[in-house]
Design goal:
It is a single chain. The chain is built from 5 helices and no strands. It is mostly helical. Among the domains are: 64 residues; 50 residues. Helix 1 packs antiparallel against helix 2. The longest helix is centred in the middle third of the chain and has 36 residues. The model has no long low-confidence stretch (mean pLDDT 82).
């Protein structure tokens, strides 16, 4: 079976070489001079392409079957992953010091700030909805407005805010 594959690979290599070196230039010249047809040139080009694809497929299959290729790939992957771990560790050391010296916020600080902003947005939406309901039911007096604002600021500072009924 290996002899048949080798014979086919040699035949494909000879076909590719002969087609690219002799047949294709000859067919293109005939077509350019008007003695040949475009179809002949296209057929010769496809013949070279098919032989080239068969040759490449055979070469790749042989490479994948080789134990040496598997060993080399495994070792290269191991070296690459160790290098990646080392570069991540070095980047962490270098950029931590840089971040502290420059005064830029870390990712954790930025995420905490985003969470706090989202909570504030939800509080503002809830306060707006309560005030819209109160306006429909009964307008607030200036004293009630002040109390409502004080309750909202207490809630923002962490104190519990009782919700008054609209009626």
């Amino acid at each position: 079976m290996a002899s048949k594959q080798t014979t086919q690979a040699v035949a494909d290599l000879a076909t590719v070489y002969r087609t690219l070196a002799v047949d294709l230039p000859l067919a293109a010249t005939r077509w350019g001079l008007g003695a040949g047809r475009e179809k002949d040139t296209t057929e010769v080009a496809w013949k070279a392409y098919d032989a080239g694809v068969r040759l490449a497929t055979t070469a790749v299959d042989s490479l994948y079957r080789s134990p040496l290729a598997g060993t080399v790939t495994a070792r290269a992957l191991d070296v690459f992953l160790r290098g990646q771990q080392l570069s991540n560790a070095l980047a962490g050391v270098v950029f931590t010091g840089l971040w502290q010296s420059v005064g830029l916020p870390t990712a954790a600080e930025t995420q905490a700030l985003r969470t706090e902003i989202q909570a504030l947005r939800e509080d503002v939406r809830a306060l707006g909805a309560v005030q819209a309901i109160r306006r429909k039911v009964k307008p607030l007096s200036p004293v009630e407005e002040r109390e409502d604002m004080e309750q909202a600021s207490q809630h923002h500072n962490g104190a519990a805010r009782p919700i008054r009924s609209a009626a």
